[in-house]
């Protein structure tokens, strides 16, 4: 894997260290997460963040474990770091960091206090909501180490304040149980019990959200570090509380071994691919012994069917997880209703409210069968997949129906946002894209072509599917070319009302990246078009992927910043989306355009925001600072999928 390591120039500078985040997932939707500096910049940061019945219903438990070193001189040196609502940063342990690194996915901090050097490593037990934190004396000593446990128990999307009840902390052998929800274990537990008031989260403040919470200092652990190699370790785990975890040092080793196995299973070609394989592993979570789901992004997203299906090939087929992917496809097929795939919402409701997730599902099944040769799965799912086509021909929810006049798929009303560009501001869609969006019809044509192939591979008659595919392709080629030399983003969109009458529909020729799917998909409607792709690249490409709108558009917004309304207003109006590099690279390769240089920016990005991973979004204007989730499934999956073609 690539070397992710920072020295004092980054570690001791709060701005630099606090803007680089690490993630250690537990494999079931929870995680530990924080920054290189140790300062918590998000409400979502913590050492034990526990997934509920759904990955998105997470709760924060153990927030921090602040070290303090007692030197032989009697001096007490605090190594933790917190930012407070007053603006103060205290303690400032990051100023003593001489190195931070990721080793086999395990974060390691190294503090130097004169000749005393102490390292911390942190890992989660795979498949369990259990974190191990190990402190080791590297040189110097003897010293004594104290570890202050700051806790809460709250929804990950909120805060807990001191105006509510204090946390319930019950002593047990070797530690304590907090709120009956999670357990702490380590040496020489000493209960405390007081509020720490006004912890500040700078990233939440920048996002226009509540940025202050109070933490409960539950107590602390302590132990002697007499000679190099001595350790002081703490474990924290959620229910079942009677679970007896292995020693913390063994958890670290188990996590490392699993990392090496995950990477080896994928047979990566180089260190970048190995890093992406491990990054992909974070998003694949087990829901039971045989089934899996996909977390769309950390730290705040859960499972979303569109994200899952776009990510499918990269997360499952490129990482040696075809059997697990097979089970996922079968479980998602069971959610089809009226020809629509369920969009499992983070709210806990199961909704059928996208026009494209189902079409991405058709693509994912086709890619699975094409790559693996699993015609048994094709035969099993074909009735359901054909039901998707029938439902779209007849018409389903939200006005989604095939127009019999041209065989293209139309959808939506002015108050809905059913495509992936689904941001709303005060309940109003920013880009409703009602009518016939370009990528929806590229996916529709692709789905028909792929389904025809699956039908014939299992001995069926695909004549009608071939006819529908040919009609969609012919109509697409006629309808979508725009005067500027690219494709319309939407055709047959409702036109604004005119007081004296006028056109009922219009075609939107906004220069957006959605059109890339028309050239990139295996059964897409267009042949390679080098001039069109070069125009698109000139307007949209950045070091981190394509912009969502050309900079010369009146609606272009170059900064994805501010409060929720400002950010949502910019989300698809110029913001960069790294996942779209996948369709661009596919299309460019088909057109004979060199693409290898397009990976350079994202490869460098692996060490500058969500460490070892790829962000959800970035600003449309230089320096293209990353925004959104630091760890995003489809961003990782698409880069992993297209870096090495022909697999």
UniProtKB/TrEMBL annotation:
Domain Glycogen debranching enzyme bacterial and archaeal type N-terminal span(s) in chain numbering: 20-226
Matching entries from InterPro entries are given as: 6-hairpin_glycosidase_sf, 6hp_glycosidase-like_sf, AGL/Gdb1, GDE_C, Glycogen_debranch_N
Ranges for domain Glycogen debranching enzyme C-terminal come to 279-641
Task: Tell me the protein's name.
Answer: Amylo-alpha-1,6-glucosidase
Species of origin reads: Micromonospora musae
């Amino acid at each position: 894997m690539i070397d992710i390591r920072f020295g004092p120039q980054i570690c001791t500078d709060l701005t630099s260290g606090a803007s680089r985040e690490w993630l250690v997932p537990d494999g079931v939707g929870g995680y530990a997460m924080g920054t290189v500096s140790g300062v918590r910049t998000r409400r979502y940061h913590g050492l034990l963040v526990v997934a509920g019945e759904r990955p998105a219903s997470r709760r924060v438990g153990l927030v921090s474990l602040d070290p303090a070193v007692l030197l032989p001189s009697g001096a007490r040196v605090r190594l933790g770091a917190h930012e407070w609502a007053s603006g103060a940063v205290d303690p400032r342990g990051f100023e003593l960091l001489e190195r931070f690194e990721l080793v086999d996915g395990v974060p390691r901090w190294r503090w130097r206090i004169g000749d005393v050097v102490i390292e911390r490593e942190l890992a989660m037990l795979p498949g369990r909501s259990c974190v191990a934190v190990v402190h080791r004396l590297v040189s110097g000593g003897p010293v004594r180490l104290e570890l202050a446990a700051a806790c809460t128990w709250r929804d990950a999307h909120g805060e807990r304040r001191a105006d509510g009840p204090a946390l319930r902390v019950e002593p047990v052998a070797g530690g304590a149980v907090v709120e009956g929800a999670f357990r702490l274990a380590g040496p020489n537990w000493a209960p405390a019990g007081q509020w720490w008031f006004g912890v500040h989260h700078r990233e939440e403040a920048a996002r226009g959200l509540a940025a202050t919470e109070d933490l409960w200092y539950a107590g602390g652990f302590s132990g002697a570090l007499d000679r190099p190699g001595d350790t002081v370790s703490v474990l924290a785990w959620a229910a079942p509380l009677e679970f007896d975890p292995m020693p913390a040092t063994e958890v670290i080793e188990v996590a490392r071994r699993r990392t090496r196995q995950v990477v080896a299973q994928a047979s990566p070609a180089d260190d970048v691919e190995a890093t992406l394989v491990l990054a992909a592993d974070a998003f694949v979570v087990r829901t039971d012994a045989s089934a899996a789901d996909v977390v769309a992004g950390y730290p705040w997203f859960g499972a979303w069917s569109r994200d899952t299906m776009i990510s499918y090939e990269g997360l499952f087929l490129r990482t040696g997880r075809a059997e697990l992917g097979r089970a996922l496809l079968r479980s998602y097929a069971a959610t089809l209703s009226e020809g629509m795939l369920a969009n499992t919402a983070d709210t806990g409701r199961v909704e059928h409210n996208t026009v494209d997730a189902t079409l991405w599902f058709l693509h994912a099944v086709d890619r699975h069968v094409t790559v693996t040769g699993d015609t048994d799965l094709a035969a099993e799912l074909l009735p359901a997949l054909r039901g998707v086509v029938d439902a779209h021909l007849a018409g389903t929810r939200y006005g989604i129906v095939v127009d019999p006049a041209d065989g293209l798929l139309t959808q939506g009303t002015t108050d809905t946002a059913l495509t992936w560009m689904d941001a709303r501001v005060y309940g109003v869609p920013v880009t409703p894209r009602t009518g016939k969006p370009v990528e929806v019809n590229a996916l529709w044509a692709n789905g028909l072509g792929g389904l025809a192939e699956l039908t014939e591979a299992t001995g069926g008659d695909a004549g009608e599917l071939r006819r529908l595919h040919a009609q969609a392709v012919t109509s697409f080629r006629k309808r979508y070319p725009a005067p500027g030399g690219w494709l319309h983003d939407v055709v047959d969109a409702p036109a604004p009302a005119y007081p004296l009458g006028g056109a009922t529909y219009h075609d939107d020729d906004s220069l957006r990246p959605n059109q890339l799917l028309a050239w990139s998909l295996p059964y897409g409607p267009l042949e390679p078009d080098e001039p069109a792709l070069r125009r698109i690249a000139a307007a949209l490409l950045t070091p981190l992927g394509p912009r969502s709108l050309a900079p010369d558009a009146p609606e272009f917004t170059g900064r994805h910043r501010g409060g929720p309304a400002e950010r949502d207003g910019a989300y698809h109006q110029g913001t960069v989306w790294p996942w779209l590099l996948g369709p661009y690279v596919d299309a460019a390769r088909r057109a004979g355009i060199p693409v290898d240089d397009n990976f350079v920016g994202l490869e460098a990005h692996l060490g500058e925001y969500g460490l070892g991973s790829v962000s959800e979004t970035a600003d449309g204007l230089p320096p293209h600072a990353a925004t959104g989730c630091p760890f995003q499934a489809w961003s990782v999956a698409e880069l992993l999928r297209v870096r090495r073609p022909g697999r």
